[in-house]
Amino acid sequence: MRINNIQDYINAIEKLKHKYSYNTGGFNNIVIEPKFLFRGHGNHKKYKLEPKILRTKKAQYGFTTQFSQLEYNILADFISEAKAFEKNILVNDIQAWLEVAQHYKVPTRLLDFTENPLVALYFACRSETEEVASVWIVNEDLYAEKIWNAPFLKMTIDSQMIVSSIIEREILLLGKQKRNNLIDYEYPWIYKPQYRDERMKLQSSMFMIWGSKRCALTEMISEHDYMNFDDKEVIKSDSSGFLCALEINPEAKSDILKQLDMLGINEKFIYPGLEGIGKTIAKKYSAD
Questions:
Q1: pLDDT band at 39 (very low <50, low <70, confident <90, very high)
Q2: Which long-range contacts (CB under 8 A, 24 or more apart) does 92-98 make?
Q3: Which of 130, 159, 199, 266 is at a distance of 20 to 30 A from 178, taking alpha carbons?
Q4: Triad 47, 49, 50: Cα angle to 5°
């Protein structure tokens, strides 16, 4: 589905929400609505749903390597340099450092999502390039149920245990013999981080942390795992999808950004502080 304005965007999300809601049945019949997470990107054709750590870099003598082969080194280097500025984080709190590193665009196994659909739309349109942009949508609860066989109500303590186990097995023990009591979590897990600064809070940040499968999310799933926009009623079953992308018409990006600005979604909101204020003022008085 192609998006030409904010109304198209909201209508598409509402249609998905209505279609993928379902009744629990029984005596206490309850309507369960999907919980969507969003991620915007400016180039739909070239973008893959994968974290930076899985991307490749050129090495010596013409060879290429995945950042993931250097993951521990990358994170250790960041901690060594950043601990002088982040004095409230313990050196051995690897999860905290991983989240801070992701915040400052260091290659990690985290991929950012947001609970705010307008924030995702802003990130999809902000480059204003001539490429088709997109907002990826994940039905969080159904994703956890189908991929992880997780219950509808996920306990925070269980989620933290999974995140900690992935970090220990895939980062701290990378290249070493895996300990027998560490479960191999293959698929990405979704969790809500601690909001360590105002930017994460305003952006309603959520993270997807990659497990041992080193490929894009779209390469891990089948065509039956995609949500669609037809009018056929969805029955709660294994055939229900949990992932889709809304494509943004490139000619509409500029107008959508203006609409978002009227709603208060702009650089000043996304990047609180002097950085956002500067970008907002510069855009306000630009020649465009």
A1: very high
A2: 94/167, 94/171, 94/172, 95/163, 95/164, 95/167, 96/194, 96/196, 98/167, 98/171
A3: 159
A4: 105
Tokens 């027998």: give the residue: 180
Q: Which residue has the tokens 């290429």?
A: 64
Helices (H), the chain: 6-19, 71-82, 94-103, 117-125, 140-148, 156-167, 198-202, 253-262, 267-270, 274-284
Residue environment code for 216-233, b if the CB has 16+ CB neighbours within 10 A, otherwise e: bbeeebeeebebeeeeee
Tokens standing for 241? 């999808």
Identify residue 268 by its one-letter amino acid code.
Answer: K
Q: CA distances (Å), 78 to each of 81, 103, 270, in order?
A: 5, 12, 24
For residue 99, what are its two tokens?
A: 């989240």
Name the residue type at position 93: D
Describe the strand order of the beta sheet including 110-114 as a list of residue ranges: 2-3, 243-248, 133-139, 36-41, 110-114, 205-209, 189-191
Cβ pair 137, 37 in contact under 8 A: yes
CA-closest candidate to residue 244, choices 1, 3, 46: 1
pLDDT digits (tens, 9 = 90+) for 67-124: 556 788 899 999 999 999 988 899 999 999 999 999 888 999 999 999 999 999 999 9
What DSSP string describes 36-97? EEEEEES-TTT--S--GGGSEEE-GGG-EEEGGGGHHHHHHHHHHHHTTT-TTS-TT-HHHH
The predicted model scores a pTM of 0.87
